């Protein structure tokens, strides 16, 4: 399929869109996606798409642009929220002001995941410019609440049957290779309690932080250090203590302490099994059962995709044509929104420009060449699956 636009035109358009997106703050917290969705709607509203906004919780907006009415339903999905920039001193420039240097675009979200968002906007515009699709339905979904693993983005669209894909293509920083397997993810909150007292006489009180430390050490010995032996090929089972807080003042014995734990599950492990395993270990710890509480914050099971699916086949051929090599099937590290469709018997593909190591890091950037390759690959996939009128 020959491109109508020249390489320079495509590059200018992609970089311009990405520059605009980096300038629209959508950090979590609070995860405000109203303005960035408004920008996207303004670009797509007169291009033949049916456009709807879905905001179940303010200010998390989700925008859908849809064309066509029949099968197959191909849904493009990308999250438009980002993490915060962290320490501004770690950035060489303003994280909200795109900088182009050495054939890369720098700025917060450049790789995760505003690069894919710019790509999807460009694709939607290019499809319209080519006269639309010949068959099926194509949907572009620009969603929030992803960085918090929350329920008010893609999950809400799926649960309300607002989107019902046959093939779900999730924007992800994969350097244009394919992620078709995904680990499950479970976030837990472990809260310990004690009795307060004066730090000058700690023996007269019951220190909640000390209890939390004991329980975390016990979980490390009983479960976490053994997870390295659980693997499926290159896919690993892992645990990470990501947040700890406790105490009110240095000279006070703390009454409460809290830790939050990230547990990544093999496709064959279930959230229920992993939760039961941790609860059973805590009961063996020797700590009074009324002195701690384990709470499941979020949990979804993993999945293994098929390498011979219609969508994967289309991407594989497009990658061969564009990159002159075989596609790579990557080992999952992060969690993507396709996890909300586990059990729906659909094809889920995570793919996009950008390197996964760039996301959530200071001076985040994306290669312009990868953006151009992604545009050619994705457009060829759309033509293969749905057909383009020119």
Description of the molecule:
With 390 residues, the protein is of the alpha+beta class. The protein has two domains: 7-182 and 302-385, Zn peptidases (Aminopeptidase, 3-Layer(aba) Sandwich); 184-300, Alpha-Beta Plaits, CATH 3.30.70. The chain has helices at 7-22, 34-44, 114-129, 154-159, 208-222, 271-283, 310-323, 368-385, and strands at residues 27-28, 50-57, 60-68, 73-79, 82-83, 99-101, 104-106, 137-143, 167-171, 181-182, 184-193, 197-198, 231-232, 235-236, 238-246, 252-253, 256-265, 292-300, 303-304, 347-351, 365-367. Strands 2-3-8-4-9-20 form a six-stranded mixed beta sheet. A hairpin with a 2-residue loop joins strand 2 and strand 3 (60-68). Helix 1 crosses helix 8. The termini are close together.
Kindly list the characteristics that best describe this protein.
390 residues, alpha+beta, Aminopeptidase, Alpha-Beta Plaits, 2 domains, six-stranded mixed sheet, four-stranded antiparallel sheet, 28% helix
What's a concise summary of this model?
The chain has about 400 residues and is α+β, with helices and mostly antiparallel strands. It contains eight helices and 21 strands.
């Amino acid at each position: 399929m020959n491109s109508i636009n020249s390489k320079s035109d495509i590059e200018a358009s992609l970089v311009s869109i990405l520059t605009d997106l980096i300038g629209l703050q959508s950090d979590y917290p609070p995860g405000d996606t109203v303005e960035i969705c408004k920008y996207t709607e303004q670009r797509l509203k007169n291009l033949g798409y049916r456009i709807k906004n879905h905001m179940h919780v303010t200010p998390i907006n989700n925008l859908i642009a849809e064309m066509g009415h029949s099968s197959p339903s191909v849904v493009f999905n990308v999250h438009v929220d980002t993490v915060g920039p962290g320490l501004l001193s770690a950035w060489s420039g303003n994280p909200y002001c795109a900088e182009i240097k050495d054939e890369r675009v720098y700025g917060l979200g450049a790789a995760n995941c505003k690069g894919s968002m710019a790509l999807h906007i460009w694709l939607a515009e290019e499809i319209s410019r080519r006269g639309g699709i010949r068959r099926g339905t194509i949907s572009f979904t620009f969603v929030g609440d992803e960085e918090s693993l929350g329920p008010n983005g893609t999950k809400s669209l799926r649960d309300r049957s607002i989107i019902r894909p046959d093939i779900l293509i999730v924007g992800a920083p994969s350097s244009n290779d394919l992620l078709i397997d995904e680990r499950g993810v479970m976030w837990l909150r472990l809260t310990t309690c004690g009795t307060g007292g004066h730090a000058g006489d700690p023996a007269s009180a019951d220190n909640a932080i000390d209890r939390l430390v004991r329980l975390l050490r016990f979980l490390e010995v009983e479960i976490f250090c053994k997870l390295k032996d659980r693997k499926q090929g290159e896919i690993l089972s892992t645990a990470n203590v990501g947040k700890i807080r406790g105490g009110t003042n240095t000279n006070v014995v703390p009454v409460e302490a809290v830790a939050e734990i990230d547990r990544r599950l093999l496709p064959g492990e279930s959230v229920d099994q992993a939760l039961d395993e941790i609860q059973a270990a805590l009961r063996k710890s020797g700590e009074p059962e009324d002195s701690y509480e384990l709470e499941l914050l979020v949990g979804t099971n993993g999945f293994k995709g098929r390498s011979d699916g219609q969508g994967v086949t289309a991407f594989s051929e497009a990658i061969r044509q564009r990159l002159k090599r075989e596609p790579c099937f990557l080992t999952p590290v992060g969690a993507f929104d396709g996890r909300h469709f586990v059990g729906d018997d659909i094809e889920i593909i995570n793919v996009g420009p950008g390197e996964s190591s760039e996301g959530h890091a200071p001076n985040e950037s994306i290669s312009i060449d990868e953006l151009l390759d992604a545009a050619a690959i994705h457009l060829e996939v759309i033509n293969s699956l749905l057909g383009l009128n020119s």
